[in-house]
Amino acid sequence: MSIIFNEQNKTFYLNGKGYSYIFRINAVGYPEHLHFGAAVPCEDVSFVRSFGSRSQIATPAGVDNPNLSYNNTLPEIAFFGTSDYREPTFLVESERGDRLCDLEYVGHDILNEKPRINGMPSLDGGETLVVHLKDKFGDMQVDLYYSVYDDVSVISRRIVYKNGGNTTLKLHRAYSFTLGFGGVDYDVVTFPGNWMAERTPERRPMPHGVISSDSKRYSSSATQNPFIMVTSKDATEQFGEAYGISLIYSSSFVLKAEGTSNGDSIVTGGINDFDFCWTLGAGEILETPEAVIAYSNEGIGGMSRTLHDTFREHLINKRFVKQPRPIVINNWEATYFNFDNEKLCAIVDSVEGTGIDTLVLDDGWFGERKNDRFALGDWYVNEQKLVGGIDVIIEHTHAKGMKFGLWFEPEMINEDSDLYRAHPDYAIGVPGRPRSYSRHQYCLDLTRKDVRDCVVEMINKMLREHKIDYVKWDYNRNVTDAFSVGTDPERQSEFAHRYALGLYDICERIINGNPHVFFEGCAGGGGRYDPAMLYYFPQIWTSDCSDADTRTKIQYGTSMMYPLSTMSCHVSAVPNHQTHRVTPMSSRANIAHLGATGYELDTTKFTDEDKAAVKAQVEEYKQIQDIVLEGDLYRIENPYVSNYFTEMVVSKDKSRAILCVYRREAPANGDTKRIRLQGLDKDKTYRIEKLGIVASGASLMNVGMGVNYRLEDYTSDMYIITEA
Ligand code: GLA
Questions:
Q1: Cβ neighbourhood burial of 172 (10 Å; 0-12, 13-18, 19+)
Q2: Is the pTM of this model over 0.85?
Q3: 620 alpha carbon to ligand 1 midpoint, in Å?
Q4: What is the DSSP-derived secondary structure letter of residue 403?
Q5: 269 with 177: CB under 8 angstroms?
Q6: How far is the CA of 100 from the centre of ligand 1 (A)?
Q7: Ligand 1, from 219, 329, 544: best to mutate by most atoms within 8 Å of Cβ?
Q8: Which DSSP category does 322 fall into?
Q9: How many other C-beta atoms can be found within 10 angstroms of the C-beta atom of residue 336?
């Protein structure tokens, strides 16, 4: 890993693990992108430039040379109004109302220590280059940050915008990066979705024009994910080039891919500029979220493994990321709101001896929470429901050697709550104007310090006064009525980003303030599943759909960018409560085992046979847990296009692996399949106990092996592969 600046050709060479990222400062002081891809020597590669379209070219001020047109040069940052017509990286308005900017290079720093971003999560470590740019004719100053890492093939980027003058500037757009690609021969993959259908890969050609993937929901959302992939046309799971761009951000974002009129492509994005305007007073700065850009020439699978390693090694809390995860019994789908201490104790008793080690008490334990119309915001125990207090169930759980987890929805408030009666203005909204409901609730105004203090105090009090080992932090609606009574009128369009900063502040104070507690994220399932949330929550409830068959798709899509260790997955009842589908218990367990596993059904109804099955499943999971949490994922069959879903996870030293095979529909005439394994060491010999196979990695990967499926729908098997 190294960052080198060649004074002669004014070129920066950023050499990461297995890649080179090269750009130069050209004759007009413009940072011009030259290469991001397979590693090359630190030599002059400016011969890559070509000039296609020459029609209607505008040139930078005072430079009457079309070859130096910004529009025809691959950018590191694109700015509007001075000869560039592509998607700008930012847009700034001066006090007199012009929106022009013409940046030039004024210097750079190379830092061994990567500076943290104020108030926002980012990757740790990494040698960092900061390139300083300044408007030739105005006050705008821009710093481009690039960090490279020893151990992962990613470059991370962000931008800091600064008002270097004495007047006020308004930023109407302030993205985190622009990345250039030579040519347009690429595909673009985005991840649209919905509640219970999160992160569905959608692949299409790089357009002539713009593809935009965004959220205007003040959360990263279930409807898109802050991740976009650009691949070579021929890229598959195993072959070809793949670039994965992931924003460490949880509020409204946008990511765009544009095939430009010049025959090149760019990808850009960051904080969504829809309904956005950030005021920069004299000397003020705006820091933008970090974008993590993974590169692989080993296909989409290689790109995913790179991102998984990056998040595990440089983002997720080191205290938990590789630790065995709690194996929970969650009472939500078992009881919904109808529980008391007696029922909860019975649930705990019913799992004794199975290996399940944590009870998570979900929604309904607080205030006057009769159903979802009441009491969000009242984070104190409902002693009418939990007679004798919550310590009855906590102590019972602990006495059985299990840990205790509790559900909160810290960002929310119901109209029918003590908190609302005392502080109606704490809810986001415009005074005097009725607010929109969603699940009968409102969002708290986390842009206000007094509101944040109140939430932190209530939750910390519960965590201080009771022996709580685990928290499930939910977020069940998106913000509407964006307006804060605590913000000046001219700054109301800063709301979406200020909400993110407020959220990170309470996460910091609650989560980092209670380091002994394990925090799981949730947002009506996977409605806010992003890298910034993973910084605080080592795992996230992947989706409110717990049906094993639907989960093959959701977990497949989610694994494109996020490691299996971050996916919270539960075995639930059949018929499934969301799809009414009936799947075998073994498949529900096998699919849940491809993540942080757990159970969410009424275990008091278990037969002896069910209990024995769960015990065996938990034992098997404990045997493979370290592979699931730390290993390399190989996606072999895509459940979106196939009747099969097949995945392997291989330990880092390639001595152990698991293979999960799943078939949706049973054909009338049974089928045998040949599966070629992936990711093994060709020179090692492996044993697959369940199949009685002992063979070399080379044969298992190149010849493959025959797998028989039982004659039933939704059938599956988990094979454990060990070095012989
Ligand atoms: C959300 C979560 C569920 C459950 C309910 C409780 O939908 O995703 O897991 O906690 O809220 O209201």
A1: middle
A2: yes
A3: 28
A4: E
A5: yes
A6: 48
A7: 544
A8: T
A9: 14
